[in-house]
Sequence to fold (345 residues):
Amino acid sequence: MQDDRGKFTQAEILSQPETWEETLRYLKSDWVGKLPDLQDYDQIVITGCGSTYYLSIWAARFLHCTTGVPAIALPSSELWYAGDVWLKPFKKVLFIAISRSGQTTETLKALNGFLENHTEDALAITCYKDSQLAKMSPLSIITTAGMEHSIAQTRSFSNMMWPIILLSEKNITETLISAIQVTAQSFLANYQETAAGIGENLDIERFFFLGNGPLFGLSQEVMLKMKEMSLSYSEAFHFLEFRHGPMSMVDHESLIVGFTNRSTFLYELPVFNDMKKLGAKILAVGNSVEKAHSIDYLFNIGDKVPSPWTYPFYLPPIQLLACKRSLAKGLNPDKPENLTAVVEL
Fold:
């Protein structure tokens, strides 16, 4: 009997370069020039649950850094039962609700609570056009290319990142779309085998994912993927915060995965060096980051794509790593333990 474990998850991870092109073309044709101007707002509030909460953390930090508009990320549940604490009537707020299915109860409740007092300034991002979230929001961006069979989010997550980037960058050119697709295809092809090999190495017992700024949200997301798919010990931290206690868990059975870039690498390399001395293996993922003696593996995104548009690139090889580890442990990443695709209360 053929072993079909993980066939959906792996195929969806590897399909991301093609789905990204589809989403970018949709955004270019349907949304360029039609999105809210973030400078019109006092605050941006972004919400989701599970993976989309981590997407919200990345999005809030990204938009705050690139636009200067204060942005916060909150779990939808907290906005549901304590929205009055966070949403102040004297502030003009853009509310962004993110949900793969568009059916997550807490996110629907959070959006409904916002719309009771604000009638226009809400934007939904989801993969399903007929979902309740898409129908109830004044503006809804539908990244249908991200739809997936798998329970653990992979291509849905990265495809829902592109509308957030467009909110900041405001335009998408044909040259940019081409550069993203070509770079994504070569990036994944270049490191697919190495990522699979690391994932299949069961001598690794602990995974630590590090990231600063917007990359901290992405480090939390891949931490979750490792837990969901492979039931492995995994945690996420800011780079330099890792020295303040968590490094006590590092040993020769540990893998440190650092999401970095050229602007922060000077501060993050010493952390790699320190963890290498403790016996850990080091994997660095970033744009135009140089190989250093303490780095065992380097997944270099390169410089062909403008920096704000490189954030989705960090995810596919680490998603694949988690998928391969799941299979190596005899699990099925298509069916994570105790989970369903949608949480409806």
